[in-house]
Amino acid sequence: MSDCPDPKGSVGAFLCRAGQHLRAAAIENPRMEARLLLSTAMGVDGSALLREPRAPVPEQAAHRFAAMLQRRLAHEPMGFILGHQGFWTLELEVSPATLIPRADSEAIVEAALQGPAPGRVLDLGTGTGCLLLAVLSEHPGAFGVGVDLSPDAAALAARNAVANGLADRCTFLAGSWAAALAGGFDLILSNPPYIETADIAGLMPEVALHEPARALDGGADGLDAYRVIVADLPRLLSPGGRAVLELGQGQGPAVSRLAEQAGLAVLGSHADLGGVERALILQRG
């Protein structure tokens, strides 16, 4: 690796060397990630690092940065290292108990907001609570229930509700999908596991090695969770109620067939920013 021009122990030198290591580990945007890690370790804004590249890095911050950098070089997701992730207009705590919210999933929120304002909202496989909390933040008259198989995930979602001022309008439960719930929901959201089992090992290491397999593995054809959820929607939805389900790439036709077999109307779909069909919108008659 090439020498770094700034003095040893300075912000610039730390960023230079970290960027080199991250690039060698095939991390995208290595300089940006180095800056984010160092600014977090030092407790300063990232722009301050750019303004003062020759400023010294305090010893304690250097130790924190080194530990964080080693985790990132092992392809641990940045969200887990920092402990938080932005989604919609919210800042959410994240942990290895849940998937890290993706910008692609904001398509589910966008699709949900196209319909009438719901009174009762259900989020199946809630994870961080990102979908439910985003919808509640836009519909101040709604109340929501989030369910996750993992008690740790349900507890994390509850903390996110508190942190975002929404705890009085939602509750989070640990359970298997909606088995313990009665119906009457106006809107149901879900980002279920939809990766085919055989494809998980080939995902980027940040996902395959660090995010929870139960939240990724959709079975041999990626549709196991949809079969359970879609079959239960007629019972769970109020008359005229809608469901918005996240899709894996190319899964729209297969999930639509499941919905039609369950007697649900397929209202349409909504693409993410990459143009991928990401949200399927269903309705009970």
From TrEMBL:
- Give GO terms: molecular function aspect only: peptide chain release factor N(5)-glutamine methyltransferase activity
Q: Report domain Release factor glutamine methyltransferase N-terminal positions.
A: 17-83
**For binding S-adenosyl-L-methionine, which residues are annotated in this chain's numbering?**
G125, T126, G127, T128, G129, D148, W177, N191
List of residues binding substrate: N191, P192, P193, Y194
Q: Does the keyword Cytoplasm belong to this entry?
A: no
Enumerate the SUPFAM superfamilies for this protein.
Answer: S-adenosyl-L-methionine-dependent methyltransferases
Domain Methyltransferase small, which positions? 112-202
Q: Where are the transmembrane segments?
A: none
Q: Name one GO biological process term.
A: methylation
The EC number(s) given in the record are 2.1.1.297
Instruction: Supply the InterPro entries for this chain.
Output: DNA_methylase_N6_adenine_CS (IPR002052), HemK-like (IPR004556), N5-glutamine_MTase (IPR050320), PrmC_N (IPR040758), RF_methyltr_PrmC (IPR019874), SAM-dependent_MTases_sf (IPR029063), Small_mtfrase_dom (IPR007848)
Q: Record's superkingdom? A: Bacteria
Keywords, sorted A to Z: Methyltransferase, S-adenosyl-L-methionine, Transferase
PROSITE patterns linked: N6_MTASE
Give the catalytic activity.
Answer: L-glutaminyl-[peptide chain release factor] + S-adenosyl-L-methionine = N(5)-methyl-L-glutaminyl-[peptide chain release factor] + S-adenosyl-L-homocysteine + H(+)
Matching HAMAP family, A to Z?
Answer: RF_methyltr_PrmC
- Biological role: Methylates the class 1 translation termination release factors RF1/PrfA and RF2/PrfB on the glutamine residue of the universally conserved GGQ motif.
Q: Tell me the protein family, please.
A: Belongs to the protein N5-glutamine methyltransferase family. PrmC subfamily.
What is the recorded name of this protein? Release factor glutamine methyltransferase
